From TrEMBL:
The modification 4-aspartylphosphate is found at D53. One of its GO terms (biological process) is phosphorelay signal transduction system. Keywords: Phosphoprotein. Residues 3-118 form the Response regulatory domain. SUPFAM superfamilies: CheY-like. SMART domains: REC. It comes from Aquabacterium commune. Gene3D superfamilies: 3.40.50.2300. InterPro entries: Bact_response_regulator, CheY-like_superfamily, Sig_transdc_resp-reg_receiver. This is Two-component system chemotaxis response regulator CheY.
Length: 122
């Protein structure tokens, strides 16, 4: 069973995405900000995929991607945000984000993107 780490400060987004992923057969770990996500990774969590919001308190998604890439070089990371600015997308990709999704993400759309990313990194 593949494990997905969801990182988002919105409890509603976490609950919605977690439920959809679990129904589809994924194991899901959640964190409410980049600091909490880094603690999970440093504690031994080895996700097959990370989905992170960009705008979060404590440690935002951009910094989280930067930090996570120091230890998880090949794990796909999808950036999730309401923001469509190309400069932020480019920054996230430069730091190691695999892809970018705009909120709100519907369940079918999320699973399609995960499937595409999984094929690339299988």
């Amino acid at each position: 069973m593949k494990t997905v780490l969801l990182v988002d400060d919105s409890a509603t987004m976490l609950m919605s995405m977690k439920a959809g992923l679990e129904i589809s057969g994924y194991r899901v770990a959640v964190a409410h900000d980049g600091e909490q996500a880094m603690s999970l990774l440093q504690g031994g969590l080895k996700p097959d995929l990370i989905i992170t919001d960009i705008h979060m308190p404590k440690m935002d998604g951009i910094e989280f991607i930067r930090q996570a890439r120091k230890t998880l070089r090949f794990t796909p990371i999808l950036a999730l945000t309401t923001e469509g600015q190309q400069a932020r997308r480019d920054q996230a990709r430069q730091l190691g984000a695999t892809g970018w999704m705009l909120k709100p993400v519907r369940g079918g759309e999320l699973l399609k993107v995960i499937s595409q990313v999984s094929l690339q990194f299988a």
